[in-house]
Amino acid sequence: MSYSNSLIQKALDKKILKTPPIWYMRQAGRYMPEYRAIRKKFKNFLDMCKNPEVCCELALQPLDAFKLDAAILFSDILTIPDALNLGVSFIENEGPVFKNPISTASDVDDLISFDPNKLNYVYKAVSNIKNTLSDDIPLIGFCGSPWTLAAYSIEGRSSKDFNKTKNFIEENNQATHLFLTKITDACFLYLRKQVEAGADVIQIFDSWANLLDANAFIDLSINYTKSLINALKNDPITKHIPIVLFSRDPKCDTKTLIDTSADCISLFWNMENFDISLAKNSVAIQGNLNPRVLLESRDTIKKETYSILDKYNSYPGYIFNLGHGITPDIDPNNIKFLTDIVRDY
Prior knowledge:
Blueprint: H1 7-12, H2 33-39, H3 45-49, H4 52-66, E1 71-72, H5 79-83, E2 88-91, E3 95-98, H6 105-109, H7 120-132, E4 139-144, H8 146-155, H9 163-171, H10 173-197, E5 201-206, H11 214-233, E6 243-247, H12 254-258, E7 264-266, H13 276-279, E8 284-289, H14 298-312, E9 318-322, H15 332-344
Parallel strand pairs: 1-4, 4-5, 5-6, 6-7, 7-8, 8-9
Antiparallel strand pairs: 2-3
Helix pairs in contact: 4-7, 7-10, 8-9, 8-10, 10-11, 14-15
């Protein structure tokens, strides 16, 4: 079997499948003891991401454990800001911290040009993973959305409110849009290199979509995501690659997401207002079990999973996934249970 006949590709082609393909956001991570054994060998998380052989091993761990229908590149969304000399490091129990965040309009003007070759370690990881997978298992490459990367780069760290970012945007409108344009161009070059290295599908993670009100979401997020998707779909190297868009709790209607021209919309776990009748035959759908359900009893997991499958399994182009990433406190045995009940549905 080839990738073109894989369950993932059939779903992305908007076919109705008896059993939906399954993969999980953050399927390689701290909830797995195999992952933790490797992670403790590295002081800095980003150093681990810069080791292509280790990234290959980590990407394959959940496939070996759960026999999933897709692999996803093991990396981090902040590789682009790191390549722009913003000085990204990961501090234990604190997350990403930027040594040189964007603080003034001059910082945007003075930003170095993005050199995609600085991220050769990512493309080597892509090729290592792809060369190890069986032909019927696609490899998903990814990047953060321009807005999400900009928000991190301005704030200089993760934050509950991103007040520094919001103040910067309010005071530096022109610089904000210039920075978003530069990030969009970098994302395009980065994803094209991933495709050249062997990625079969691309997912764009708009992880901080929830920070923006409806108008700002269009202005600062959607418009740049659309530009990125348009560039990918008009490039000879990437034009045939399916694109999945995940937006975290976006303040917009269904049509806004469809109009990005993404091939698949990955639903956040609380997106109950997504109009599947409007989306039908326009886009594939991915999602959207709340990962917190996996901390509940097996009966609850089964009930909530079947509720989602009852709603989406007859949809033309459905991929089962979570509505956000697997968290470190989830028992891997519950991931196995979840995978089994989806296949037995």
